[in-house]
Amino acid sequence: MTEPGAQFEQILPPEQVEELLRTLVKASRAFQMYLPNNPMFHRAAKNLETAFEPVWSAVDELVLTVQETDFVWEGTVVYHQLSKADSLAWTLYKDGLRVLTLRKGVEVEELPRLLRVVNKVRGLSPDATEDLFTLLWTEEFHFVDVRFTEFVQDFGTAELVPGAQYSAGASFADEVRTDLAAVGPGEGIGGVAAQGETVAEGEEAGAAGEAGGAVDAVDRPKGVVDIDEFDSTLYFLDAGEIDMLSADLRLEYTRDLRDASLSALYDLFESYAEDEVREEILGVIETLFPSMLNAGEFRASAAVLRETRALAERAPGLQQGHRDRLAKFVAQLSEPAIVSQLMQALDEGTGRPSDADIMELLRELRPGALSTLVEWTPRLTSAPVRALVEAAVQQLASAHQGELLRLLRSGDPEALPGAIDLAGRLKLEGAVAGLGDVMGRADAGLRLAATDALVQIGTPGALVLLEKAIGDDDRAVRVAALKALSARGYKGALRRVEEVVAGKGRKDLDFNERRAFFEAYGAIVGPTGVATLGDLLARRGFFRRKQSADVRMCAALGLGKIGSPEARAVLESVAEDNDRQVRNAVAAALRGVAE
Length: 595
Prior knowledge:
The chain has 595 residues and is of the alpha+beta class. The protein is built from 29 helices and six strands.
């Protein structure tokens, strides 16, 4: 003869119940994440109704036994989740629910309400006045029956069914006491029957009935449990197990739930190819990203950028519109407005993130952010932040020299000074052409900055531009170029320098600029220039025009730059010159030769 359970199993295979519970868990998560007016909410509800159809075609009710991490149906485990934080069974079990009965029709209206109650219980604090028992009782379900093992003050332990219809005029405690008082003497304290179902008597209540004594009331605050009710041995947890539980608790209370939520969104984006699903997920991420930046959550923001870039590569069936939207989202961080807000937040924020978090985000910047970064760098008042931003700018400019060249040629008055300085500090040979364009601008300050940058670069192309700068209209530019060419002994500048030494160049030179020309001449021409400079330094005869003191002084300093024995001899010959200024210049030149 066939056993009833075996016949029942043939009608409804356990695999079908397992599939139903998997759908139920997914629906619970969807109901927790989305509002009832959301398409994802309705999709989950529809999937749940579809999952119940094969079950109701075989049975009219589904009775599930609730264990700590399992649902058991007809002696078979049909749901198992070892992690209690994610276990639907544990959420019900920890509040005393032991049997869950679902009847045909529950999926239409009552099951979403039941799942909303369960999700609400998950978010309740330990000292909340509500629990699963009371919340289910207020719902007054017709297609859901639940059986609890609950401690009731003054009456001991009993199994209760919140699904029973209690009168509206009496309090909940009065109803429970009335139900328990209905149990006759000697019968023990049993369960309260609900909707024609008889609940078995409790073992402890039966023992109290046999003894004929009343159960003493236990004064215990709500939420406080007695360890003796759970400890079955003298030492039920060893030190290692306690440490493990403590570590799990610390992890649970410190983990970032937002990261888990975002990971779920990424998974949904890959799993569901429907346009409306992916549109909604993209909208959520685009809304969250600016808020995360404003809150200074830079590591999380960088993680979002990495994940969205990965989604664009690996999401199956991704439409071009969504791909473009993801690419635009990654580039959003480098937009001038967002980069400016980011720099301001870093500079003014009191709770600055760690350097590692800042650098992780700055590494995600695109070349288009270079313009805004070089504008902000000199404005930053925080030295640590400026150092981090300068490092990021140098890395970005070195990797994208074309963007720096574009800035040099753009003429942007805000970004150009920073771009010039950056080109010089990095000694970028590719920036020489752009600096040449800057040398043709009307702003003398920019031309001087470009000259300094060309001096730092020092390539042959940079020296050619410095040689042209000798004829610049601004004195500071000319002097800076002369000193740089003099230090390098660049012979390409000899023609322009020699014109000034010979008195054929500019006539409006002051002493310091004229000195720069003569010293540059001596450094470039070398010993072959002793005759020319010596002739300018020497005393003149009666019929020869005497040179001015400024020219003679500059000639002496030029000979000092040559530093050869012949140059020293010429200087010593006029060491006792009648002009005190000339004597001082000759003495300075001789000291330079001696050194």
